[in-house]
Design brief:
With 124 residues, the protein is mainly β. 0% of the residues lie in helices and 43% in strands. The chain is built from no helices and 10 strands. Strand 4 and strand 5 form a beta hairpin. The radius of gyration is 15 Å and the shape is globular. The relative contact order is 0.16. It comes from Boletus edulis BED1. It holds the Pfam family Peptidase_A4. One of its GO terms (molecular function) is glutamic-type endopeptidase activity.
């Protein structure tokens, strides 16, 4: 898993990119992220127990990657884009857009694209 974490620390809103290969603990990337930044996240499975996550802030031209290893193998059959709330209630983020959300399978398979109607989440 990989994504952007948004939380409040005192009176500051913190934005951080993270990744996790369960059952290991999450890794927090050392990237500056601000509201309105355009972020790309690329998750690549090298094997069923090894992968690399690359996060790029296209707005600031910062990029970082992290290698993940686990003893628990990936199924390599699912790709999910989601908005997840750790706390209740979920903050109203306005309109969020997933763009160019694509999953590629093994060589010789076709890419799977997130349909345009599913790329927007209004008042998440």
């Amino acid at each position: 898993m990989a994504g952007v974490l948004i939380y409040v620390d005192g009176n500051r809103i913190i934005y951080k990119a993270w990744c996790e290969f369960y059952p290991n603990k999450p890794y927090i990337f050392d990237l500056d992220i601000s509201p309105g930044d355009e972020i790309t996240i690329n998750v690549t499975a090298i094997t069923t127990t090894c992968g690399v996550v690359t996060v790029c802030n296209l707005t600031t031209s910062q990029e970082d990657d992290h290698k993940l290893d686990s003893t628990s193998p990936l199924c390599q059959s699912d790709a999910v884009w989601l908005i997840y709330r750790a706390n209740n209630p979920l903050v109203n983020f306005g309109t969020l857009a997933y763009t160019n959300a694509t999953a590629y399978g093994t060589p010789g398979t076709y890419p799977w694209d997130l349909p345009p109607r599913a790329q927007r989440c209004h008042h998440c």
